[in-house]
Specification:
This protein has about 600 residues and is α/β, with parallel strands linked by helices. The chain is about 30% helix and about 15% strand. Bound molecules: 1-deoxynojirimycin. The site of 1-deoxynojirimycin has 9 residues, from loops. Keywords: Glycosidase, Hydrolase.
Length: about 600
Amino acid sequence: MTAADESVLITTERAGLPAERGWWRKAVVYQIYPRSFADSNGDGMGDIRGIIEHLDHIEKLGVDVVWLSPVYRSPQDDNGYDISDYQDIDPMFGTLADIDELIAGLHARGIRLVMDLVVNHTSDEHPWFEASRSSKDDPKRDWYVWRPARPGTVPGEPGAEPNNWGSIFSGPAWEYDERTGEYYLHLFTRKQPDLNWENPEVRRAVHDMMRWWVARGVDGFRMDVINFISKVDGLPDGEVHEGALYGNGFPFFAGGPRLDEFLAEINREVFGDDEEAARFLTVGEMPGSTVEQAQVYTDPARREVDMIFQFEHMEVDEGPGGKFDPRPIHLPELKRSLARWQDGLAENGWNSLYWSNHDRPRAVSRFGDDSDEHREVSAKALGTVLHLMRGTPYVYQGEELGMTNTVLERIEDFRDVESLNYYREATEVRGLAPADVLPALAYAGRDNSRTPVQWDDSPNAGFTTAEPWIAVTPNYRTVNAAAQVDDPTSVFSHYRELVRLRHELPIVADGTLTMHLLDDEQVFAYSRDLGDEGLLVLANLSGRPARVDATALGWTEGEVLLTNLPDAVPSLGADVTLRPWEAVVWRR
Ligand code: NOJ
């Protein structure tokens, strides 16, 4: 396809979708994790046609963008985040014709498609890596990060790795490859070798691939761990924290020296001039980024990315040993963190807003209360506080139904490589008993959010007619889409209303935000302002009644815009009493 053809496609394919700069401030994104969304062909795995069959659900929710987790050809070591062909669809998900149909179906409904872009690493089965590992003289050798054993050691023996970094998925970050007697770097599993972004050919290959998707009609990219692509020269050893088996390479691979340059280059090479680029959405997944870094990455003048996924509020229940060393959430700490991000990106740059995704437990189980008594109301309260903040909200599939964590009791219940590797290392290398490891995996494990979407109360929740690749969460008979979509009091309808408010009230997208009551251990409170207009959001994120003096926040009157409980709403005044998990939004 010539460049001219491509630009014709860009303009015709996306006709009718808003193109004004910053359109995504008013947008809500819906994330689809395809293997768990809907199975159309009865093999127990979700697929693209399954998504096409459920487009009405997405349209009804009212969202503007779908972010699709990877559907590319992949050995599925990390459920598709290990890609062996960026320009083909894995047969388990369908074909390129299916993705074209999905794009067309979404566009016809005014919804954009953002693809996952996983280019910090490929699969070890990608032809690039197969060439790279074939010989030290192969033209693609330098496309990956190869290093000899540490001087004075025997290659392949424990401790001979080029540096002491640990992999994010347990074990060392290096794999010895006998054929050429060197090691390759893999920040994730050994089947996910890191690309060498210092090599301009690698960058060009990524740009070409992205342009190919743009020409196919996709509207942007969610960029997987994109802040890991620039590593510090020399790859120095990391500090070994107390109790750790490996050194911490994070300071040497996150937010590295050439990251800004690489991001701006992608943007320029793939999206073209300012006007054309404004049609797309880019969101960089950036673990460990600070607000100060995010100010730079999301500064529109620099054209690096539109927004990032920051991780700070995801760490409020992590102990010193990380996510599998959980601690209780303290609401003031969570609010302070979100307040820092709201303030830091108030003037310039932009926030993404999320409670969950395919890497996190279910929001209602983690930040709310998934008991029968409070599940619905707490799911709505969480949605309310998130969606009315300043930023672009992301809804993870099933969150709009108040889907909960699943039951993970025995190691056989788990599917995720992160949990399985962690368990193996904890029991076999550290000598812990299974009973000491499993509760933390059940709490924080990624399989919680990867169980099938609960469509109805039929066997397997209507997800598949076969045995699903992971068990359905047992509560699907009561928690499912069929029971909610037409019920005006459901979690689904509440989310739908939140999406509508963002579309219709400029104050939600553009107003300033002031956080209140940061020390309060029960109430999440903030106000939004735009010209003469104001919103007050008060949510009791606890199972006990809570009291707020609204007059002290400058609010004595206002009309009620949204609530999450039936019956009487508290009136504004010095003594507003909120019932457990009650959330109320006032407007003036
Ligand atoms: C972040 C993705 O969200 C996660 O699912 C994946 O395992 C890692 N990056 C590695 O690609």
